[in-house]
Amino acid sequence: MPIVVKDLHYTFNPGTPWAVQALRGVSLTIGDGEFVGLVGPIGAGKSTLVQHLNGLLVPPPGKVWVDGVDVGAQGRSLLAVRQRVGLVFQYPEHQLFAETVFADVAFGPRNLGLSAAEVEERVQEALALVGLDFQAFRDRSPFTLSGGEQRRVALAGVLAMRPRYLILDEPTAGLDPAGRRELLALLLRLNREKGVAVVLVTHHLEDVAELAQQVVVMAQGRVAAAGPTSQVLGAGQRAALRALGLDVPVAAQLVDELNRRGWQLPLDLVRTADVVAAVAAAARSRAAGGSGHGA
Amino acid sequence: MALKDVTLGQYVPCGSPVHRTEARVKLLLGIAFSIVLFVVDEWQGYGVLAAYVAAAMALTGLPVGFVVRGLRPILWLVALTVAFHALLTPGTPVVGLGPVQVTAEGLETGGRLAARLVLLAAGVSLVTLTTSPVAMTDALEWLLAPGRRVGVPNQEIALMMSIALRFIPTLAGELDRIMKAQKARGADFETGGPIRRVRSLVPVLVPLFMSAFRRADGLALALESRCWRGSAGRSRWRTRRLRAADWAVLVGSLTLFAVVGWRFR
After folding, report:
1. Whole-model pTM?
2. What ipTM, to 2 d.p.?
3. pLDDT digits (tens, 9 = 90+) for A50-64
4. Which of A99, A115, A211, B248 is buried most, with the most CB atoms less than 10 Å from its CB?
5. Which region, left, alpha or beta, applies to residue B100 given φ > 0 means left and ψ of -120 to 50 means alpha?
6. Contact by Cβ (8 Å): A184, A177
7. In B, what residues contact A, Cβ < 8 A?
8. Region A3-247: CATH code
């Protein structure tokens, strides 16, 4: 079952001189097991939106549904929703607090009221998922780890809740290229192997193009575009995306540039591998036909 | 969290005549107002001072509801003051039950103190609501300048104040974020007994202190990398001058305060 958002509005500091309309009627659906890219410039309302999805900001009744449960009608018992929908904030390592890696990752499962044995099992599982050796790390202080390791511990802390939906706000910010690749690979693995729906909140369309099946573009508190990645990042939308201050993936730029020079590559290609394959095929047929206009 | 609800004294930029009045003038008037408030002992005096504050508030153009809401935190203090005075002052009983007597004299004194407290809070928040923190620290630095001769580090105090003020919203935002992150992992700050609640704050306070130290470190580096060597002998980019209107406000208000203080003492 999906996450469904229907016509959600939100205003910060209503009734004061600082009132800001952050969401102005957002509707969208995040399917079970999907990989969704949520993109948009700063101030588009992305963070405000995702905080509604696990009840950190409580939506009015009837606006946000998680697996058929109305988030706004739960009163104070939001634990079940927060277990289902895991939220990883920006720089999640800044929220580490415990004396050991084990205790920090166990925080969530313990809040769920699980038995000690179950907690340990979940911590093991979560640390294995993020690629940290349980025995080597369990008793270390999280504050002595490297930045990349800290981030993985923080991510494990959310994964230990066993969420069905995992929302990450700029999870690769501040990581080096290797750390970034590893983290994105982990998200893909979670999605493909564990069936966890992933919502990647980011400004980087590059990552979205490679990983996401669906893209939601937000601007000024509204959904500006939504649909399959190849459509939303497709040729027709690129000028609009640039106007929002977002960068079109390099592979897509290459397609546009080659087509401007007379090639006829399909415009819905956005993933690097797909573009490479299409360019190679076109180049081969150009060489064979010698016409100068391959496709 | 309640932190965000505290509007008492939070600067709201509007550009009204009150906002444009020099910070030093407002600071001096705030101090003079507070003194007069405790000299005055008659209801007519409070009436005049209340009218003064109300007129100034009206001039600021801030929403009335917003200003009143900012005063709410002191109401319990006012209620407590009135209750204590009403019950503990000996005199003519009005109503009562056995040894517990509400006296007319008690109500009278309690009411006077309540008026003072409310006017004090209103007057002070009038200053802070309309003065930017930067202007305020400049004014404070100026006010403390005579103390420099006897070793009062006025410029350092001003810098510390402005940094502290600057960090309040930052840390409040950080606190909000950390609480949300822990809530996302099922943390519960609202239920359970007092011990449970205090313990539930550990996962919030540890990261908050870490972040405060990290920011302090970064700030120290940023200050040093811009060659900050203490405040002595620093010049100012923007010098603030008293305009004719500032003088008029200053002299006019001080005269009013003096008359009120003399007449209704």
Report:
1. 0.76
2. 0.86
3. 999 999 999 999 899
4. A211
5. beta
6. no
7. 7, 12, 14, 62-63, 65-66, 177-178, 180-188, 190-191, 202-204, 206-207, 210-211
8. 3.40.50.300
